[in-house]
Amino acid sequence: MLCGDWHTAEDLVQITLAKVFVSWHRISRRGAAPAYATRTLVNAYLAGRRVKRAGEVVTDILPELPVEPPEPELRMVVLEALAALPPGGRAVVVLRYWEDLSVEQTAAVLGCSPGNVKSQAARALSRLRAHLGDELAELSGQPGRC
What we know:
The protein has helices at residues 6-22, 24-30, 33-50, 72-83, 87-98, 103-110, 114-140. The protein has seven helices and no strands.
C-alpha cells in the first residue's frame, strides 16, 4: 500500500527483514519487533523516495537497438593514449569524461580549484588529440575530428 508497486514492495520487505535481522537481539528483548519492523519499513520507503534516480518508465515503444561496442583495437589505442598523459591530466579526463563529474565535483575529488581542473582538462584533451590524430578516425570508421 505504501508504494503501489508489487516489486518495490517486495524490495522494501527484503530491506526491512535484513535490518530487523541485524537488530533482532536488541528488539526481541524489549518486545518491540512489530513496531520496529513497521518503522523500519516506513523509513526504507521514505529513503527510497528521497534518492534521485531515473527509475523505470513504462512505455509501449521498444527501445533503440544497443550501440555496438567499440572494436578492441580502438580501446587499446585510447588506453595507450590515456597512459601517455601525466597522472593529473589522466585523472581529470577520467573523472570529467568517463565518470561524468562536473568541474566542481572533479575539483573536490582531486582537492584542487575548478580553474585547475579546466586547464588540466584542456591540456590533456589537446595531448590526446595530438597523440591519437588520424588513427582514431581510421579505427572508429568515422572521418573528421576526434
